[in-house]
From TrEMBL:
This is Superoxide dismutase. It catalyses: 2 superoxide + 2 H(+) = H2O2 + O2. InterPro entries: Mn/Fe_SOD, Mn/Fe_SOD_BS, Mn/Fe_SOD_C, Mn/Fe_SOD_N, Mn/Fe_SOD_N_sf, SOD_C_sf. Destroys radicals which are normally produced within the cells and which are toxic to biological systems.
Amino acid sequence: MVFELPALPYDRQALEPHISARTLDYHYGRHHRAHVARLNALVAGTEQADRSLEEIIATASGELFDQAAEVWNHTFFWHCLSPQGGGEPAGALAEAIAARFGSFEGFKEAFGAAAAAHFGSGWTWLVRTAEGDVELLGTRNADTPIAHGQTPLLAVDVWEHAYYLDYQNARPAYLEAIWALVNWAFVAQNFEA
């Protein structure tokens, strides 16, 4: 199996002014593409070559895990954003968020604080627990909830390359801008799956 860079679900300019086309050119066009290329180089001619991305993540370690997880994480992240995003979730997802965080505003504050305080590189996630509740999760570097049997609902990339061109070192400004892009339909679909 040869892994391919999946197409973005929108044009590179579509997330402006919150995320620039220039950032997507680097983040998607270079970083994500490089993870796909490196993953293909690592699996070529090995027993991993016929496995799915999820199977590799479940069984690999070291650089192979890192590359496979970063391909998966980035692909998931692009779908968490939408030019028609923003607003608030509805239905069962909204109820679960309110039950866990007291309100949507309480959730935004908790998520933003966790993502802003995340030291170094990694990801901040909203995940569904085995009990059907929601919780926040921070993962370091390439780590991903699917490696631990958790169901990711929403991901925000807090690696510096995700925001530096647009926001320099102001991660909180990037995190605030993300709320205008969150694809709540995709998040709800993950919650209900």
